[in-house]
């Protein structure tokens, strides 16, 4: 292993214009804009919910005149205007117009493409990764302000336009990173949002990858970052991964995790042992089935990359309800999902009203890693559940979406949910391609259901 990752610091998104996404993240997904870096040629905004931090970067060919002249985001209302007022209050001329802590991707589509990790020692990671043949887009670089200094470097991943910023912020006392200024909080109902939308961290990141590339991707992450295999199914073949290859679904899933691989025996002074890990899932399509969403992603995105990100919530029902009320569109699972044999019983056993879950489009499944010994399958207390709901794509292209996930004992994924996700994305894309304009026929309507 070359780089010892201590934690996931943030994920960055690169978009043509930050306005709509900033508005959506704050007003609909209930993230807080807490730091910003505004130069004459670029905008970088940082949003937080629990330990989940997104940095939204605007491609640098944009100028700031719309912002400075007070033009509002497309979906302008008073709260989005307030976001901008607070952000630009501190605008200062920054002679360095580069995208700090990152690089602009070559693709011109909006994309989530940098997963930034804190590391113990940037210089050491750089040297050993480079010795192993990794391509660096930014060599170790120091940035400082009055609150300390940060060292970072950017390495290219083997996956499409994905790269990883490796960062050491142990000598920095500011809220985020040097070069960013703090943004005063903008929404008055913050406290409500914490209880209604208790998102705590990034649960998993799913890559869409070309056929037959999984083994190489896994090797890259194992060799360079020490990721370890996470078996989705206890029966899963080591080389094949978890395969669904019937009824129109052609999918190979393989998962890895990075947390448990940190250098054994070495206690990192800044490592928060209570922070959960984030899994990386590789999705590859299989040729035997017809049209599919992984291939559509590769075409629209112009290569492999991040297909979706799972946000962990402690209460998926209230989070979904709050977000839907605020305007987030979720996929509707196939109606048959809720009427499958045993599904309603399973939901009731887990303590949920099936009708309520169905109204919200929330999926409930048992972990494929379920212990199959008789003592574990007979009692409901030992069942390990996971609940998931998926948003519709959040960019103009259908290349990226978010997921909410609540785990009740389950650490992996469930077969029924994987199938349902596949089918609802597929139905959405087929509907989209049949009707050129974005349709809302699959929207979940906002309900008043209780939980
Ligand atoms: O189930 C999840 O949330 C996953 O992340 C696994 C997954 C990945 C890609 C698909 O098209 C379907 C399921
Ligand atoms: Fe997922």
From TrEMBL:
Binding residues annotated for Fe cation, in chain numbering: 204, 308, 403
Name the record gives this protein: 4-hydroxyphenylpyruvate dioxygenase
Catalytic activity: 3-(4-hydroxyphenyl)pyruvate + O2 = homogentisate + CO2
Originating organism: Osmerus mordax
Required cofactor names: Fe cation
Keywords carried by this UniProt record: Dioxygenase, Iron, Metal-binding, Oxidoreductase, Pyruvate, Repeat
Biological process according to GO: aromatic amino acid metabolic process
One Gene Ontology term of the molecular function aspect: 4-hydroxyphenylpyruvate dioxygenase activity
Assigned protein family: Belongs to the 4HPPD family.
């Amino acid at each position: 292993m070359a780089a010892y990752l201590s934690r996931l610091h943030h994920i960055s998104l690169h978009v043509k214009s930050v306005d709509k996404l900033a508005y959506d993240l704050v007003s609909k997904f209930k993230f807080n804009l807490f730091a910003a870096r505004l130069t004459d040629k670029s905008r970088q905004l940082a949003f937080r919910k629990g330990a989940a931090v997104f940095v939204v970067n605007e491609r640098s060919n944009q100028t700031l005149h719309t912002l400075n002249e007070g033009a509002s985001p497309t979906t302008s209302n008073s709260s989005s205007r307030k976001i901008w007022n607070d952000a630009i209050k501190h605008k200062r001329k920054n002679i360095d117009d580069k995208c700090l802590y990152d690089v602009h991707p070559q693709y011109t589509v909006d994309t989530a493409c940098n997963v930034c990790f804190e590391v113990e020692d940037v210089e050491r990671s750089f040297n050993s990764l480079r010795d192993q043949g990794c391509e660096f887009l930014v060599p170790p670089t120091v940035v400082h302000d009055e609150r300390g200094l940060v060292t970072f470097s950017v390495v290219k991943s083997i996956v499409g336009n994905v790269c990883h910023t490796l960062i050491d912020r142990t000598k920095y006392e500011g809220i985020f990173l040097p070069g960013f200024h703090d943004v005063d909080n903008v929404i008055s109902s913050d406290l409500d949002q914490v209880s209604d939308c208790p998102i705590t961290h990034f649960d998993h990141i799913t890559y869409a990858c070309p056929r037959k590339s999984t083994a190489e991707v896994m090797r890259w992450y194992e060799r360079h970052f020490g990721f370890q295999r996470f078996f989705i199914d206890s029966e899963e073949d080591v080389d094949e991964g978890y395969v669904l290859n019937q009824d129109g679904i052609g999918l190979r899933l393989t998962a890895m995790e990075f947390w448990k691989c940190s250098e054994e025996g070495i206690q990192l002074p800044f490592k928060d042992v209570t922070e959960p890990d984030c899994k990386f899932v590789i999705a590859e399509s299989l040729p035997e089935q017809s049209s599919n969403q992984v291939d559509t992603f590769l075409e629209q995105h112009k290569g492999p990359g991040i297909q979706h990100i799972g946000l962990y919530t402690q209460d998926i029902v209230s989070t979904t309800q709050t977000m839907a009320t605020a305007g987030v569109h979720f996929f509707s699972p196939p109606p048959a999902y809720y009427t499958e044999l045993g599904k309603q019983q399973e939901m009731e056993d887990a303590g949920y009203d099936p009708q309520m879950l169905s109204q919200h489009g929330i999926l409930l499944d048992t972990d494929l890693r379920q212990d199959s010994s008789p003592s574990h399958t007979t009692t409901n207390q030992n069942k390990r559940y996971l609940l998931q709901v998926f948003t519709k794509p959040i960019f103009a292209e259908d290349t990226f979406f978010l997921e909410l996930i609540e785990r009740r004992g389950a650490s992996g994924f469930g077969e029924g949910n994987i199938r349902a996700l596949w089918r609802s994305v597929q139905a959405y894309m087929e509907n989209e391609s049949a009707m050129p304009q974005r349709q809302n026929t699959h929207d979940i309507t906002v309900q008043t259901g209780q939980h």
